[in-house]
């Protein structure tokens, strides 16, 4: 018996994530942030994050949809939104009124992401969560680690990372990567039918304000754990490390293109 299927959709949407931001930071254990500051970007695959054990209900790192490219529903909110079919032995067969079809990214074990966080204006000119020029960051950043690394020169950081990527012989790009970097969009996946991809996550993760970098890498260049270790050179001259207490649950007064933290301790 032969079963085939096809999806008629705009596979590579004419869109790219928002890349503009005026602060990049990453929360984590001090040892890992020191490693990053010394120039090593340790990148796990989307398969790793989708299969991570022990975080099923925390909306922290694990995300079942991390390797998902497309999810289509026949019914949403009690209403029919479309009909899905497969072809069996040449005959087109409907999957029924409550069908759900999921398509994963190709080779998810070879697609790697490095997750940071960003402050950036939304379409309304405000940072999400901004009110009267003030912003409070989630207390949950403390769950990621005891310190935060701040990128003090985003332009120089971008140049160093780009140079490292261009010099690496085993990295590759793909239209599935949507340009390879930018802010994550947060949507209600319970009411979403269509492309998910690398730059959409469920709204339960919105507190992370994620800005991510995506790379493809051939298997022969991975470490024993299946991760990518990308050396981008020393970053100590353009980064600072501060205790997470300076960020998590703190309310900041915002000035565009300025972000000051009192009593910063640079590690």
Give a short overview.
This protein is mostly beta strands.
Number of domains: 2
Mean pLDDT: 86
Number of strands: 21
What series of H and E elements makes up the topology?
EEHEHEEEEEEEEHEHEEEEEEEEE
Report the uncertain regions. 259-267
Determine the fraction of residues in helical runs and give it as a percent range: 10-25%
What general outline do the C-alpha atoms trace? Answer: globular
Could you tell me how far the N terminus lies from the C terminus, measured between alpha carbons in angstroms? 63 Å
Please explain how this structure is put together:
The structure is a single chain. With 267 residues, the protein is mainly beta. The protein folds into two domains: 21-66 and 108-253, no CATH class; 68-104, no CATH class. The chain has four helices and 21 strands. The strands form six sheets. Strands 2, 3, 10, 12, 13, 14, 18, 19 and 20 form a nine-stranded antiparallel sheet that branches. Strand 5 and strand 6 form a beta hairpin. The longest helix has 14 residues, at 154-167. The termini are far apart. Residues 259-267 have low confidence and may be disordered.
List the helices and strands and how they pair.
Blueprint: E1 3-4, E2 23-28, H1 30-37, E3 40-45, H2 46-50, E4 68-73, E5 75-76, E6 79-80, E7 85-88, E8 91-94, E9 100-104, E10 111-119, E11 134-136, H3 141-144, E12 147-151, H4 154-167, E13 171-172, E14 181-183, E15 185-187, E16 194-195, E17 200-202, E18 210-217, E19 228-231, E20 239-243, E21 251-253
Parallel strand pairs: 15-17
Antiparallel strand pairs: 1-7, 2-10, 2-12, 3-10, 3-19, 4-9, 4-16, 5-6, 7-8, 10-18, 11-21, 12-20, 13-18, 14-18
């Amino acid at each position: 018996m032969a079963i085939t299927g096809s999806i008629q959709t705009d596979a590579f949407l004419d869109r790219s994530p928002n890349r503009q931001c005026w602060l990049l930071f990453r929360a984590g254990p001090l040892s890992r942030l020191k490693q990053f500051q010394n120039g090593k970007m340790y990148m796990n695959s989307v398969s790793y994050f989708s299969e991570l054990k022990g975080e099923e209900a925390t909306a922290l790192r694990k995300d079942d949809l991390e390797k998902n490219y497309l999810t289509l529903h026949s019914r949403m909110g009690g209403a029919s939104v479309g009909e899905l079919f497969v072809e069996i032995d040449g005959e087109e067969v409907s999957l029924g009124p409550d069908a759900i079809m999921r398509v994963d990214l190709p080779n998810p074990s070879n697609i790697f992401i490095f997750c940071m966080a960003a402050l950036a204006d939304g379409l309304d000119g405000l940072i999400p969560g901004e009110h009267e020029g003030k912003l409070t960051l989630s207390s949950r950043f403390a769950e990621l680690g005891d310190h935060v690394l701040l990128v003090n020169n985003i332009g120089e950081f971008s140049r160093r990372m780009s140079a490292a990527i261009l010099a690496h012989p085993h990295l590759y790009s793909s239209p599935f990567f949507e340009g390879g970097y930018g802010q994550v969009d947060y949507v209600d996946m319970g009411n979403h039918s269509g492309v998910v991809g690398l730059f959409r996550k469920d709204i339960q993760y919105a507190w992370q304000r994620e800005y991510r970098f995506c790379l493809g890498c051939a298997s022969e260049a991975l470490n024993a754990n299946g991760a990518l270790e990308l050396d981008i050179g020393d970053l100590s001259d353009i980064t600072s490390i501060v205790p997470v207490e300076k960020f998590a649950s703190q309310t900041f007064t915002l000035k565009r293109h300025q972000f000051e933290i009192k009593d910063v301790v640079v590690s």
